[in-house]
Amino acid sequence: MKLNNMLTNLFYLLFFSSLLHLSFSSSFEDEDDDDYSSSLELTAFSSPSSKKFDVVTQFGAKNDGNTDATKAFLNAWVAACASPTPSQLNVPKGNYLLKSIIFDGTGCKSSISFIIDGTLIAGNDYNQHWISFRHVVSGLNIKGGVLDAKGKKLWDCKVAGRGCPTGAQSLSFDHCENIRIEDLTSKDSQMFHMALNYCQNINMKGVTVTAPKDSPNTDGIHIERSKGITITNSQFKTGDDCISIGPDNQNLWIESIYCGPGHGISIGSLGRGTDEGVLVQNVTVKSSTFKGTGNGLRIKTFSTPIKGDVKDIYFLGATMINVQNPIIIDQNYCPHNNCNKGQGSGIKISNVVYKNIQGASLTPKIINFDCSPTTPCSGLKLQNVKLDYQSGTPKCEYKNARLMSTDSMRLNCQLYSP
């Protein structure tokens, strides 16, 4: 009886320990960055018992890169979606021409593993999206594959100013939950490579994004109105933000990211249009590298009275290699010079931690906190920030910003407030 009781207690101990491991922590510990870690576990891909659906052998898709395979992919998705047990949708090696396509998860009965061994090639239809997943909540695993959007034609049109179409996002998820994406490559997107809107519990690992440094609006991953997003061990070489965080996002974990070329990792821009009451909270960017980027770690808001909050932001460990603006808060963001810069941003920025940030800046201003005169930044904490400027003494400028701690900053740069 005593042995049975011991085994029973051990079972419950292990069970509740596993539950605690899966819980998402939102605390920050000064002593050890590892105390604040992502706990969103990766779910397993398809099991041997999964029902298989092959887009070529079962649904007639041609992998020659010239024959439209859109209908075959849709039919395969409908079949997988109707399966009462977990299913696997296979895309064998080869090139597949896909026009604008929507994979609708409404009514899907079980999880789907989308295994892509080939390359998906975009057609010439310039809609707002190319490949879109909508209302998928029963579980989706996407593994492997290359998305080739062939965006150069549209970029050239925009550069020439010929009245071009808007262009399409390569891969978008709208109102989706419980998604895992691993080892996926997106190249030469017309606009955003990937976009998450109104999503929850999304895990992205081993993502690769490539586009020329002068390609317009080709953000790597854009996130809006989402919760519980994890992006790890991924590489971004593009013409805009590597990762952009738009309005109303909470509990984001971004770790082991390589960014360059690109515009860095940005929270914002916020405070435009219908952003009233916007909230971005509990965002961690950890152990990332920026090389040759326009910015490193950036928060940006428009100079408008629209109110909102950006708070509990943790930048933990970053290496800057020839970055123009390594650390920047810009509350006078105005890309087209049509803003009233004097009125001040209504977005409140508070509790932002910069810890273990090192490397070299291309410009003397290694830190620029340009906060709002009407809603000053508060609780900005700098710890072990050591950024060099090879051509002279680096400068750290702050306006309307309340610094909680500047542990090593006074030794490393000229700190001043104009």
Automatic annotation (TrEMBL):
One of its GO terms (biological process) is cell wall organization. GO terms for molecular function: polygalacturonase activity. Keywords: Cell wall, Cell wall biogenesis/degradation, Glycosidase, Hydrolase, Secreted, Signal. It is found in: Secreted, Cell wall. InterPro entries: Glyco_hydro_28, PbH1, Pectin_lyas_fold, Pectin_lyase_fold/virulence. Residues 1-25 form the signal peptide. It comes from the Eukaryota. The keyword Nucleotide-binding does not apply. PROSITE patterns: POLYGALACTURONASE (PS00502). The active site is at residue 263. Belongs to the glycosyl hydrolase 28 family. This is Polygalacturonase. It comes from Saponaria officinalis (Common soapwort). The lineage of its organism: Eukaryota, Viridiplantae, Streptophyta, Embryophyta, Tracheophyta.
